[in-house]
């Protein structure tokens, strides 16, 4: 059995016999320890470097070289402490730091076999996917497919976000709907005042362009799931309750003028009355001068705009008037001229 003094003598002799120029070995006689300082380390293929202890410093090596490369099957394994690159106080398993946010080198980069950047983290904190020069905190580059996908079920339930070659944003949801809860949407404005606010621009504010053969409503405005105003695929406009509308404005497909219908109020009683038409000047009353001095409008049926060549026909209780004014009634007088309502009048009857 060797004594401690003999062990120290043997260790000192081993240290003194070291002839390697890149390894400095110092024997500490006071406590019997050996210090190794490595200035150049080049392990052969297939060999391992085992480090036992709490800290390994390779700062002096990095001061004289620009890259550390692991090629082939090279790897670093077995680290039981934090690894710091650019920092002496790593706060994570791998901590990468730089002293300059404007450094031209990224903090972290993943590349393909052709050295194309797949993922990078810049010194400024910007992250790039498929780009080596991210311009925002997260920049995803893809000129072939949508740049981002949010997935609920892999491959089937998702939403794609695409910036196309024209700089437009295209959102494609596999469920066909984009829903905003309790939010206002502003188009052309950063301060939307309603669920949908559209402002600015010289083009039409809203354009609805359906495909050929589209047979549903182009617009359907509802309250509590009940339609109040809608425009169908033919361009006809409806106002009223659901499918039982009160007012219908229909366009002609044969070049003739449009048609305005005012139907009876909706309900379960078949004898509901028809609607009224008021042409009021300056107020919502039944006619006469309004508070602004305006007078009631006219009903004009003309073949050449608002000219004196009035050739239209008016039918009351008939859809086929044969004269300028045609009143159909088989149960009583067709026309009454009244001076005092209910008492002073003249009736005209064709029997």
Question: Can you characterise this structure?
Answer:
With 351 residues, this protein is mainly beta. 5% of the residues lie in helices and 29% in strands. The protein has two helices and 22 strands. Strands 14-15-16-17-18 form a five-stranded antiparallel β-sheet, with no helix packed on it. The model is unreliable at 52-66, 285-292 and 303-310 (pLDDT under 50).
The succession of helices and strands, N to C, reads HEEHEEEEEEEEEEEEEEEEEEEE
Mean pLDDT: 75
In which order are the strands of the major sheet placed?
A: 14-15-16-17-18
Structural class: mainly beta
Give the low-pLDDT segments. 52-66, 285-292, 303-310
**Helix content percent band:** under 10%
Global outline: rod-shaped
Number of strands: 22
End-to-end gap? 146 Å
Output the number of helix runs: 2
Characterize the largest beta sheet: strand count, sense, and whether it forms a barrel.
5 strands, antiparallel
Chain oligomer state? single chain
Q: Could you tell me the strand content as a percent range?
A: 25-35%
Which value, in Å, is the CA radius of gyration? 44 Å
Which features characterize this protein?
351 residues, mainly beta, five-stranded antiparallel beta sheet, 2 helices, 22 strands
Write a brief caption for the model.
The chain has two helices and 22 strands. With 351 residues, it is mostly beta strands.
Q: Which helices and strands, and how do they pair?
A:
Layout: H1 4-16, E1 23-28, E2 33-38, H2 59-62, E3 83-85, E4 94-96, E5 108-111, E6 117-121, E7 127-129, E8 138-140, E9 148-153, E10 157-163, E11 169-173, E12 185-187, E13 196-198, E14 219-223, E15 226-231, E16 237-241, E17 244-250, E18 259-262, E19 314-316, E20 325-327, E21 335-340, E22 344-348
Parallel strand pairs: 3-4, 7-8, 12-13, 19-20
Antiparallel strand pairs: 1-2, 5-6, 6-7, 9-10, 10-11, 14-15, 15-16, 16-17, 17-18, 21-22
